[in-house]
Amino acid sequence: QVQLAESGGGLVQAGGSLRLSCAASGRTLSDYVMGWFRQAPGKEREFAAAISRAGSLTRYSDSVKGRFTISRDNSKNTVYLQMYSLQPEDTAVYYCAARGGSWSTWKFDMDYWGKGTLVTVSS
Question: Is 24 exposed, middle or buried (0-12, 13-18, 19+ CB in 10 A)?
């Protein structure tokens, strides 16, 4: 079982930036497709970004594409989400998640989840 711990959330003004981190323990991070999901108040959890095991491939939801960048450093067992041009609608709890297996077979499902970190964007 892999344990995931998010950090880096906080309060930021609209137009600002923030970098989230996800530290993994218990397993080798390179075995997992990693992703970030978010859940806004009163809304369903939604996909934001994902990255392949080696970090060479990424996917983004339309709502964050061009503004967010997911990256990973497997030597540090850490995944990042760099967020730019944040808007109030980006306010959500952001969750780090992991899925064992390859990018080619990943279907947006995840096996392991962190507890989340809150990002609040003020207008």
Answer: buried
